[in-house]
Every structure is written in C-alpha cells, then in structure tokens.
Amino acid sequence: MKKSNSLVNAKNLTLLALMTALVVVFQLIAAFIPLGFNVGALCLIPIVIGAAILGPWAGAWLGFVFGVVIIATGGAAWFYGLVHPQWLGITFTVFVVLLKGSLAGFVSGLLYRLLAKKNSLLAIITAAIACPVINTAVFVLACFTVFFPGISGAAAGAGKSILAFVFLTLIGVNFFVEVAISAVLSPVAHRLVAIGRKMRHDKSYI
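The structure corresponding to this sequence follows.
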C-alpha cells in the first residue's frame, strides 16, 4: 500500500512540475506579445488542465506561479505608483496579482470537480471560461478599491471616465482574447485532462 501511495504521489508531483513549467513558459512568451495595456495570460489553459487533473489546490499553485511570472517580468510595474508611498503600491500590486491568479486556478479546479461526474466536457469548458473571468474580476475589483485613487487620476489625465479607462484601456482586448483561447482550446484540454487523469491511476485530488 505504501509503495502504491508513493507511486501516486510521485506521479502527482511529476505532473504538477510539468504543468508548472508550462505555465512559466507560456507566460514568458505572453510577455513579448502585445495585446494592449496589460500582458496577456496565455498560460490559463495549462492552469485549467493542471487544476482539472490534480485538483483545486494544484490550480491555486499554478495560478500563483502565473502571478509570480507577471511580477518577475515587470508586467504589473505600472501599478506600483498608483498607491503612495510606493512600497505600499508595490505590496498591493504583488498581493493582487498573486491573489487573482491563485483564485482563478482554485475556482477552475473546484468547478471541474463539481461538474466532471455529470459531463467532463462541460466541466472543462466551464473551468476554462471561469479562469479568465475570475482573473479579470479580481483585477477589476482591485481597480475600484485599492488602486482607485491612482486610476481615477490616470483616467482624468487620459480624458476618459474611470469605467472607460478600466475596461477599454487597462483590460481592453486581453479579456476577450483569453476567453476565446480558453473556449477554443477546451476540447484539446478535455483530451489532455483525460490522459493526465489516466496516468495518475487514482481518482483522488491533491
């Protein structure tokens, strides 16, 4: 029994390491692809696949890694100056970026777990669409709370309303590209999840 459990845990760790590497590589590629004001999130599908195979907490980890890459590549640096003193702006920015990725991964894994027994394809489609929605929703919430003073000033300087600045300038086309990619690649993700779960030989989650 111990040998069997060790084998399962080794496979889980191997799969998690593989998905973590994919998240890093995909997001590094996204850093060099201009999609508007913010950096696009090309790694959302690997996050969803990992969350579906290994569970919500693995999804949270992959979302956390996604956030770390964004911070490390300077993708959120503009927000550092929105809150004064700057150290507080940096702290808020890092917290928000890590939170939105982690929450998106966790919710995706949770939705897949809840729906998979009824319809696995519907489950992966729902999880894939929920991931960018949650990621963007947390970002929008942060814009209208912790970053509101700085964003209102930036919007006024750009001659736009706050709503227009947040949704057209800060979010722009990114959100729609992320949702479209997630939806289109859902059948592929569904197949990869089936293969990954078969490799585990275990129905439990991390």
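The mean pLDDT is 86.
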